[in-house]
TrEMBL record:
Example of a GO biological process term: glomerular basement membrane development
Sequence ranges assigned to domain Fe2OG dioxygenase in this UniProt record: 307-457
Cofactor(s), by name: L-ascorbate
PANTHER family: PROLYL 4-HYDROXYLASE ALPHA SUBUNIT (PTHR10869), TRANSMEMBRANE PROLYL 4-HYDROXYLASE (PTHR10869:SF246)
Cell inner membrane in keyword set: no
Name of protein: Prolyl 4-hydroxylase, transmembrane b
Amino acid sequence: MTDNQETQDAAAEDTSPSGSATLPLRQPCERLSCHKSSVCSRSYFVVVMVFFHVYIINVIALLFYVHYNSGQEDASRSRDAPSSGHQRPESRRPPSKDELQRDISLPRIEGIRVGHVQKVSLVSGRLHEMRTLSLKPLLFEIPGFLSEDECRVVMQLAQLKGLMESQLMVQDGQEELARELNLSPEEIFNLLDINQDGQLQLHEVYVSLWTERHNGIWLTPENLREIYAGLKADKDGNGLLSLEEFRLLSNDAFQRFLLQRGVKRSQLVRNSRHTWLYQGKGAHQVLQDIKERVIRLTRLPPTLVDLSEPLQVVRYEEGGHYHAHHDSGPVYPETACTHTRLAANASTPFETSCRYITVLFYLNSVDGGGETAFPVADNRTYDEVSLIHNDVDLLDTRRNCDKSNLRVKPTKGTAVFWYNYLSDGRGWVGEQDEYALHGGCMVTHGTKWVANKWINIDPDYQRQVRYQQCPHCLSPEWWCPHPAAQTSILSWCNLDLLL
Ligand SMILES: O=C(O)CCC(=O)C(=O)O
Ligand SMILES: [Fe+2]
């Protein structure tokens, strides 16, 4: 209604024949109400417009936010369920010049949710089913990845080449390592004393000893008590070690004790035999086919797979095992990757395997035991100390596989694969995924054959690029990793080219 109409309506009421005394009173009221409604509709319009603009501004701000955070979201999506313990400070810093110049971006397969099945095309004329087994680590299972014939050929080729002990009983250079560490007993004591109470509890010593540091010998809590008693380290017998008592438990005394007592294979971190099979040009067709299928499965650039370690074939006898471990080490600035070490000019004090992905093939179905265990898969949090609790060591695959969150039963031809590293959120390798901890449970009946295809990628992009431009930098130890194989049984390495 316009202002002009309002005036005309009012004038019409003035000339009304009713002569009612209420008219003069009603008039201003109605006029007021007309006027009020006009004011109201204008202010209503203004309010609506303000809300509309605020809404538009919000939408634009949201779009900007999503755009600038897409990198981080990508990283957390790759984990699907990020936990507070997994914040990656480096993913919040602005990309460096190097990062902007990257021209390789690593695809990562989405897990969606545990139990999700996706169809994958790995060989022509057939689709395979790939099931998500866990999101932390991102882990998949593909039944029938290898045919029966392929499994047989791989096992035969490995036998023809010869398998070596995966872990030697006594590792040379152990004392050298201890000397290189260059830490006083006080310093070691302080580092081990996690709760800083000036005494070492059993689990504090144990956590530090389960690593391969001590000749790769696996120690159970009982072993430790025995060592304490044998060395008479715990003089007051209270189960705790003071600094004075700890001094007695020096590395030498510890080694001597183990030598006296004798170590059985079952007490090693790993009790298996293995060999390596070259998969490049000229290799057996089955080995080349498997490599091609791995490229299709992982969707990674073929060069990365070509320049990775050869296929490792492993055989466990009855009683064999591999305690829980990581296939890749954490990467710090002072750590270099084994595969890029030669290409990297810098000499770094530490070296570790950098295996972005593990593809594990089961070459036979095992009669009893031999599952691959993932003790902390999809745990809400990861806490290294709580892996060993109340004398239950979750890393011990001879005793405690039944307590692992996830176990995969070996079935001939099935492949499982997982990511050992998180994404850095910008298409490259990020931090080590602690949840990728896994091991081979003890084989209780029969033998177990598996093969590992590791895809090596250096979290340091520039080092990886330098390595790719320097293929002759390929580490010869991969062909013949055992020092003895390189010197006395050279034919093992040469045979590779024939197979
Ligand atoms: O044997 C298994 O199930 C696991 C093997 C493994 O983790 C390895 O060889 O690194
Ligand atoms: Fe492994």
